[in-house]
Amino acid sequence: MTHVAYFDDESCVLDEFRALTSQTLDAAAVPSAQAITQNIPIYDTPSLAPKLSEASKRRALLAEWGWVLGQGPGVLVLRAAYKDLGVIDAASAAYEAIIAREKAQGGAQADHFATAGANDRVWNSLQKLCMVDPMVFARYFGNPALAAVCEAWLGPGYQMTAQVNLVRPGGQAQTAHRDYHLGFQSGEVAAQFPAHVHDLSPVMTLQGAIAHCDMPVESGPTKLLLYSQLYRPGYMAYRRDDFRAYFEERFVQLPLSKGDAVFFNPAL
What we know:
Layout: H1 14-20, E1 35-37, E2 40-44, H2 49-53, H3 55-70, E3 75-79, H4 85-106, E4 120-122, H5 125-132, H6 134-141, H7 144-154, E5 164-166, H8 187-190, H9 195-200, E6 207-210, H10 234-237, H11 241-250, E7 261-264
Parallel strand pairs: 2-3
Antiparallel strand pairs: 1-2, 3-7, 4-5, 6-7
Helix pairs in contact: 3-7, 4-5, 4-6, 5-6
């Protein structure tokens, strides 16, 4: 096998990418999943409580989640991650108040994809919620299932950050991309990092989202191209027109219910 020290535009071969992203998830690889929908394992969070409370079973579940996020489809869904929807409602009310206050103080917040003001954003929402309502903060972020999936990918001692993204009707959809760290760099900057840093970047963060309302496909849940995190030159490839066109042909979207959570590899 040829050693690759750096990735560039010429490293990207669509046929290789197509082969990686055409895999089908074997149900035997995700024994704790309640179902598999569009190749995505779905977990019933309340029924996982006994596994999360017993050390050996918890370790096995975390190992399963780590495999899903790394070598599997790259995404998993926790159904009913919040059994008490009152926590979601309380956090939503606090965030809506923060949005109103920030608009009154300084106008529209910037956005990565949409025009500023098209959607509503709360940056650093974790700290802001804690300052506004510490009790709601503790109930919202002190979710044992969320802690478990974060540990499955990042290990203990991880740090959490959060942002609110309130998408308005007619808002611009996000385009194909990879996320922080290297995904936020320009192609020229990303190409300066050795290939092993491209391999390292996805294991430094985990992406997740919590549904504060029912989210049918028509509402625009995140587009996902399963198994795409396995493509090593992906931080270069996602900028190419041929890869973007393939993404638009093959992405999947999964409807979410209020209180559900989805977690995915940042290189997906």
